[in-house]
Amino acid sequence: QVQLVESGGGLVQSGGSLRLSCAASGFTISLYAMSWHRQAPGKRLEWVAGMENKGVYTDYTHSVKGRFPISRDNANNPLYLQMNNLEPEDTAMYYCGLRFHKPDTLGQGTQVTVSS
Fold first, then answer.
1. Rounded Cα gap, residues 34 and 22, in angstroms
2. Residue 51, strand partner residues
3. Cα→Cα distances 13→23, 34, 75, 112, Å
4. What tens digit of pLDDT does each residue of 32-88 get?
5. What DSSP state is assigned to residue 3?
């Protein structure tokens, strides 16, 4: 059974940083592209970043490019999202996803709240 579990969210001031982690089980993560998504209150789910399975090619939505590098450690499982220079507009529930853009599976999410 495919399972994704996110962690690392929290409350942070504008300009601060957080690192999100995603632990995967039930499949061989090194064979799949992975991604991060977010959903703010009252808004649709938004794709944030994706990384192909070997960890070389990445892509980002425009609003986070240069601030939120995505990375992965296939040997030890996790997928990461380093979130730097956070803005109040980044406040959302963040989800780890299986596949590069449109996720087959999402985790339960971790809340990120950025205060101004």
1. 10
2. 34, 58
3. 26, 28, 33, 11
4. 999 999 999 999 999 999 999 998 999 999 999 999 999 998 787 789 999 999 999
5. E
